[in-house]
Amino acid sequence: MEKISVGLEWFMNPDHIPMMIGVTKGWFKEEGLEINMIEPKEHFDAIDEIKAGNMDIAITEPIHLVEDRANDHSIVGFSRFLHTDGGVMYIKEKGINRPIDLIGKRIQYPGAPGLGGLSIVKTMVEADGGRCGLEDFQPINNGFYHTDALEQDKADAATLVFRNFEIIEAKHKGLDADFFSLKDWGVPDFCQLIFITSPEILNRRQSAIETFIKVIRRSIDFIYENPEETKKIFLDFTDSDRNDSLTAEITAATIPCFTFDFSMTAEYYDRLQNWMKESGKIDRTIDPQEYWTNRFCF
Predict the structure, then answer these.
(1) Which of the listed residues 72, 76, 98, 227 has the most CB atoms within 10 Å of its CB?
(2) The CATH number of 2-84+191-290 is which of 3.90.1150.10, 3.40.190.10, 3.20.20.150, 3.40.50.720?
(3) Phi and psi (nearest 5°) for 263?
């Protein structure tokens, strides 16, 4: 039995259902694979873990892949599997109705006061016809607890949030929240989850990775054909409370986010990295073919 360790981008949640199905149904085992899902201690430590040999592949978002590669990390992305909608969540009672209203507001995002969250809101304001500098926002760092930051009045808006998670969580808490989608306000849509690894592992374990993706594809087919059983598998796998309405709502909202198209284009990554360079997130752009491959996608 060949073992593959998969680093999760966050705590185990409905985004990871395809792997849970593959394990529960025994499909990985049928293909000679044993899957170990690892919850990282830190959100961004997957690269170090892969280098150290503690993970074979990891889940991340396209923006982190580009940033890591621009910072000379030897990394490559090889398949996406989830595409949701997301952006900046805000509380309506704070006088926010359109992106230009974010000027002067407290913006919650992991990594504050770094450029990440500020670059997003600045781009949105400018797409809305406004003019601003990064200093026109107040960065707030409440980790990845976006909804808590808004509920506890630590911030007026938060980024980056996913429609299938934080928006539902905020409404479940009774907050009058809404969000500005990246794709509507000038920011490349990076609300997607992808698999990454090192070029060395990709070449050395090509057969195992190809088989892994084969099972993920089979699992996504199952998700769309059997949504109710999918929900049950998630609850059983995570030992979640069946009476927790928030978990049920998030799971139901996540199911339609899994994609049948695992590929990504060089044009997509060019637009993303050009925006990142213009906003100061990276110093240079790189040929996307150096850090993304579609060889397992078709």
Answers:
(1) 76
(2) 3.40.190.10
(3) -85, 160
Pairing of strands 138-140, 106-108: parallel
Contacts of 47-55 with C-beta under 8 Å, sequence gap 24+, read 47/73, 47/75, 49/7, 50/7, 50/75, 50/196, 50/197, 50/198, 50/201, 51/198, 54/5, 55/5, 55/6, 55/7
- Can you say whether residue 11 is alpha, beta or left, with left for phi > 0 and alpha for psi between -120 and 50 degrees? beta
Contact 76, 292 (CB under 8 A): yes
Query: How many angstroms separate the CA atoms of 43 and 153, rounded?
Result: 24
Distance of CA 263 to the CA centre of its chain: 16
Q: Is residue 259 a contact partner of residue 83, using CB atoms and an 8 Å limit?
A: yes
Could you tell me which CATH number the domain at 86-184 has?
3.40.190.10
* 101-151 confidence digits (pLDDT tens): 999 999 999 889 999 999 999 999 999 999 999 999 999 999 989 999 999
pTM over 0.90: yes
Domain ranges in the chain? 2-84+191-290, 86-184
- Separation of alpha carbons 166 and 171, rounded Å: 9
CA distance 289 to 287: 5
